[in-house]
């Protein structure tokens, strides 16, 4: 590569760095979104106005309101029925006209037997309780998504900072390599290697910025924000997992499973109560137009359950109870496994963060500093600098991944402990 072409490539790299850094600076000047603000925008903080507009909360709460309304409906008794009959009219002979008409006015009332009303109310109350627990679980799931995606966005921002540092470092290395090549202290191959490393760093920066934009957009989607995605700081939030999750067996996931079993049991009682027919008692008065006489009527109507005794619905509700009990057993087993796994992931990530931040990264930073000083003085070749830089970058990437794992495991433990 000629000196003229090399200088052109170097100017292009410097121009890109000069462009990328102001863009990052502009984003840093925008208001940074904290985790507490993200939870508030999602409608999870107390008194948040977004609670009334976040569809992830509106839907489950509306289902709860509907279930509560059905409880009130289940408490209502059957309405009475009014019947009016007119006989012996518009016939022939003595029954022509209205002279021989008979008018019957009666009121009937269906009597619910077999504890139908009580079973219906209990089934509706069980469904309302299930809907309420599902709404609480939906809020806990939303809280987990906010924390999980916020941590992912912070990790993406940290990777953007790492990529920017790598670009700046490679620009400097390319400049030094060019100077050393010009004075004859390095072969031209070293300059080519530095330019290749710079091009790779620029590509990684673009990928990191795209990943950061995607992570921030996913976070904003949790509160249906269609504007510019928020800017999340690269510093990871301090998410402290609850200490009682290991011994707690009252998580919302288990509560939902138990509420489903109770609702299925109540549904069996309701279906069994429908086996007993309900009589209809009626009373009324009949008027004979021909003689101007009146008479009182009393009647009882009872369905005969010869073929339909609601046996199919009873068998179906019993099968649904067995299915609900099976899901409850699975939920209990999965809950314990999920808690154990999340706790192990959190503790392992916490240990990695401590080791990488306190020992590995400072040592790698010091090694890179010494190698870069030696490279400027011509004591080390470029390959040594690149090797030390790659080792330091790998440790920084590992630290970011460990911090991300720790934050997401803490978010999972909070979700599992929600009650």
Automatic annotation (TrEMBL):
The keyword S-adenosyl-L-methionine does not apply. Residues 1-20 form the signal peptide. Keywords: Coiled coil, Signal. Pfam families: OEP. The keyword Membrane does not apply. SUPFAM superfamilies: Outer membrane efflux proteins (OEP). One of its GO terms (molecular function) is efflux transmembrane transporter activity. Transmembrane segments: none annotated. It comes from the Bacteria. Residues 116-143, 189-218 form a coiled coil. Belongs to the outer membrane factor (OMF) (TC 1.B.17) family. PANTHER family: BLR4935 PROTEIN, OUTER MEMBRANE CATION EFFLUX PROTEIN. This is TolC family protein. It comes from Aurantiacibacter arachoides. The lineage of its organism: Bacteria, Pseudomonadati, Pseudomonadota, Alphaproteobacteria, Sphingomonadales.
């Amino acid at each position: 590569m000629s000196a003229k072409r090399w200088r052109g490539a170097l100017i292009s790299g410097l121009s890109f760095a000069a462009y990328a850094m102001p863009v990052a600076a502009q984003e840093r000047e925008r208001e940074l979104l904290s985790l507490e603000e993200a939870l508030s925008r999602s409608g999870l903080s107390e008194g948040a106005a977004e609670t009334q507009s976040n569809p992830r909360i509106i839907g489950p709460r509306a289902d709860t309101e509907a279930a509560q309304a059905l409880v009130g409906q289940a408490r209502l008794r059957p309405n009475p029925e009014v019947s009016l009959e007119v006989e012996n009219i518009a016939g022939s002979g003595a029954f022509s006209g209205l002279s021989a008409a008979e008018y019957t006015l009666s009121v009937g009332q269906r009597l619910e037997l077999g504890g139908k009303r009580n079973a219906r109310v209990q089934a509706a109350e069980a469904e309302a309780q299930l809907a309420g627990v599902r709404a609480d679980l939906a809020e806990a799931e939303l809280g987990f998504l906010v924390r999980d995606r916020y941590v992912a966005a912070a990790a993406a921002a940290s990777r953007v900072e790492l990529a920017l540092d790598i670009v700046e470092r490679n620009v400097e290395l390319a400049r030094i390599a060019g100077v050393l090549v010009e004075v004859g202290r390095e072969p031209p191959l070293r300059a080519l290697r530095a330019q290749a490393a710079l091009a790779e760093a620029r590509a990684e920066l673009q990928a990191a910025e795209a990943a950061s934009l995607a992570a921030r957009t996913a976070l904003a989607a949790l509160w249906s924000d269609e504007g510019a995605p928020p800017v999340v700081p690269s510093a990871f939030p301090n998410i402290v997992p609850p200490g009682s999750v290991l011994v707690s067996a009252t998580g919302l996931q288990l509560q939902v499973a138990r509420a489903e079993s109770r609702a299925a049991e109540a549904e069996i009682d309701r279906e069994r109560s429908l086996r007993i027919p309900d009589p209809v008692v009626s009373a009324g008065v009949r008027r004979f137009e021909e003689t101007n006489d009146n008479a009182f009527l009393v009647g009882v109507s009872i369905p005969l359950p010869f073929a339909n005794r609601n046996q199919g619905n009873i068998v179906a509700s019993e099968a649904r109870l067995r299915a609900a009990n099976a899901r409850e057993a699975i939920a209990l087993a999965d809950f314990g496994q999920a808690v154990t796994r999340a706790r192990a992931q959190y503790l392992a990530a916490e240990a990695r963060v401590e080791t990488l931040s306190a020992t590995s990264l400072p040592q790698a930073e010091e090694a890179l500093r010494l190698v870069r000083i030696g490279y400027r003085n011509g004591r080390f070749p470029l390959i040594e600098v690149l090797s030390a830089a790659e080792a330091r970058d790998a440790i920084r990437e590992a630290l970011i991944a460990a911090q991300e794992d720790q934050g997401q495991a803490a978010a999972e433990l909070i979700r599992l402990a929600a009650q």
